[in-house]
């Protein structure tokens, strides 16, 4: 696909503030099911797996002047996260259809390897420091 990827290492540096000054704000969008998110997620991530909720959060604004980084992920970032990122990019293109190639959010990424890879390498940035799989038999 045409989506840009961000590594777990780069995301950890972002969380540590090593890229401050290059952006105004960042959002981590966790596209997993609520039980996965509640079982452990990246600090400050928002659990959004509904496209309408995502759209309302980012595209019902009047001011798009901030430089915003948006990072999508799911368990492995192979299905749900990339799908939501593609939905997001398509919505941004539609909002700017008369001003191509302008985008309100040009800095959109998918976390390579998803929560699983991030958790395995940087669990100190996860809360709680746990990992519940989508296929967990309890759910």
Can you walk through the features of this model?
With 139 residues, this protein is an alpha/beta fold. It has a single domain, classed as Oxidized Rhodanese, domain 1 (3-Layer(aba) Sandwich). Helix content is 34%, strand content 19%. The strands form 2 sheets. Strands 1-6-5-2-4 form a 5-stranded parallel sheet. Strands 3-7 form a two-stranded antiparallel ribbon. Helix 4 (80-95) links the parallel strand 5 (68-73) and strand 6 (107-111). Helix 3 crosses helix 4 (80-95). The chain starts with a strand and ends in a 12-residue tail after the last strand. GO terms for molecular function: protein tyrosine phosphatase activity. It comes from Anaeromyces robustus. It catalyses: O-phospho-L-tyrosyl-[protein] + H2O = L-tyrosyl-[protein] + phosphate.
Task: Describe, in short, the structure shown.
With 139 residues, the chain is of the alpha/beta class.
């Amino acid at each position: 696909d045409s989506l840009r990827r961000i590594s777990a290492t780069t995301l950890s540096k972002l969380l540590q503030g090593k890229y401050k000054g290059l952006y105004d704000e960042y959002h981590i969008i966790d596209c997993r099911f609520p039980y996965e998110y509640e079982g452990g997620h990246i600090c400050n991530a928002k659990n959004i797996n509904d496209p309408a909720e995502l759209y309302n959060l980012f595209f019902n604004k009047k001011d798009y002047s901030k430089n915003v980084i948006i990072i999508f992920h799911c368990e492995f970032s192979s299905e749900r996260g990339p799908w939501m990122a593609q939905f997001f990019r398509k919505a941004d293109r539609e909002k700017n259809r008369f001003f191509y190639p302008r985008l309100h959010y040009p800095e959109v990424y998918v976390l390579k390897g998803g929560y699983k890879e991030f958790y395995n390498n940087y669990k100190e940035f996860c809360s709680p420091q746990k990992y519940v799989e989508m296929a967990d038999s309890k759910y």
